[in-house]
Amino acid sequence: MMGLCCALFFARAATAQELFNFAEPASNMPAKSLGIRLTNNVLDEQHLGQTTHQFLPELMWGVNKRLMLHAEGIANNSGTPFRFVGAGVYAKYRFYTQDQVHKHFRMAVFTRAAFNNGHVHYQELEVNGMNTGAELGLIATQLLHKQALSATVSYEQIDNNGRGNTIHLGNAFRAVNYSFSTGRLILPKSYTSYKQTNFNLMLEFLGQYQPEVGRHYVDIAPSLQFIIHSQTRVDIGYRHQLTGSMDRMATNSLMLRVEHLLFNVI
Amino acid sequence: MKKVIIIVALLMSTLHSFAQIQSASLVASGLTCSMCSKSIFKALEKLPSVKSVDVDLDKSVFTIQFKEGIKVEPDDILNAVTDAGFAVADLKMTALFPATKIEKDTHLEFAGATYHFLNVTAQNFSGQKTFTVVDKNYVSTTDYRRFKKSTDMKCYETGRAENCCAEGVAKGKRVYHITL
Fold this sequence. Notes:
heterodimer, A: 266 residues, twelve-stranded antiparallel beta barrel, 5% helix, B: 180 residues, alpha+beta, eight-stranded mixed beta sheet, globular
């Protein structure tokens, strides 16, 4: 509740963007365009007493104005030398759009599916990087007089990971994920050219609830974003657990990302 | 015979220049960020008919100059903007007209498409003239309803030639609704 109040307060001061670093907005990338996204999560994996790197290279495709697809690889060095442990696909379909000048309200459904051969040590469920499984969700994004707010809710169903890496007895296979995101444009003060570097501050709240076992967590995730030449994103984010009752790979992590869009290449 | 051919060719080129849409001013909606604006800019720039695009980033206004001799229609612009993920809030196009007489609901063939004048008074004009496209998806929902009330013609709802349209316009053909 405190988190929600903080987010609403931040949102009132926000003047900005919806290209959130931890959650996806309801908007899609442009049709006939490709994007390359390289994400590296640096996790403080206390269970193994090591710093774990989780590398997620993604290829993104704007199929048409409503549909976008991602294909991603999943690699990490959790208790092993650095290696690829899985792959996933993601699709987002924007089904509702109400656009006005400098305003919009949009809704989208998304789905993600992945296989993963990595070890399963933890109670947290995450199809995007840790578990074999699928996710189905709904996103609503409101841009209003340059303020952007976005909320996501999704259902996640996982299975045992490959190569005999099974879920430990008593751990959940299902989860409900939710997020609330807002962003603030810091620079430039006014737009004059596509070559201006944009600097954004984001604040996001990311939560998971596992109804089978009653475990939960809520993270706060502040982040910085630079947009260079209106075409390349550099994101730096920090994720910290506010409250939680499950074993996780890390309750503190750093996210580093570079994303580049290639307009109208298909 | 050679002279006749040259005269006919000159006449054709004159008529062609009269039919040319020269420029457009587009206000795009649904965006604030420069990355979003750039996706529209790139989509417009890629249209075969577009010579150049200038943008006012703060106001999301794109000023488009068209090449001579290549057909351009409002739907080319609309599709480029919607494919980029956004919408058209206002589209004004400037064309060179021959001596033209119009009144409310006049259907006029020019620049390779059919245009239906809505909400205009009877008038004559020639030369450069700017018109606004008021079809569905080119104006706000409120303005669309307002224009819909101003005409009984079904073609405004469908954007296609209906029985209500003037003779000589094939049923089902794309009809753009414009006002001055």
